[in-house]
Amino acid sequence: EDYIINAQQRAQIERYISMLPEDYRQLFELRFLDEYSYEEIAEKLGRPLNTIKTQIRRAKAAVSKMILEKE
Fold first, then answer.
1. Could you tell me if 18 and 25 are in contact, meaning their C-beta atoms sit under 8 angstroms apart?
2. CA-closest candidate to residue 32, choices 17, 42, 45
3. Which residue, among 58, 40, 36, 62, has the nearest Cα to 49 in the 3D structure?
4. How is residue 12 annotated by DSSP?
5. According to the model, what pLDDT value does residue 23 have?
6. Which of 8, 59, 65, 67 is deepest in the core (most CB within 10 A)?
7. What is the pLDDT of residues 26-64, one digit of tens each?
């Protein structure tokens, strides 16, 4: 039963992630699904570290907002 609930929650979160703008989706996936560090993401994408941190924070906020609106 717990496995099914976790799978359903993961599917719901993946749906929210898919609704993010492409740039935020890429950052969210790199950070939380692929478990890259902020520094690794900045290096991989050739962007300033602070920009990456800000954009990931915005992506998390967007997903959180979608979750709260659903409840």
1. yes
2. 17
3. 40
4. H
5. 93
6. 59
7. 999 999 889 999 999 999 999 999 999 999 999 999 988
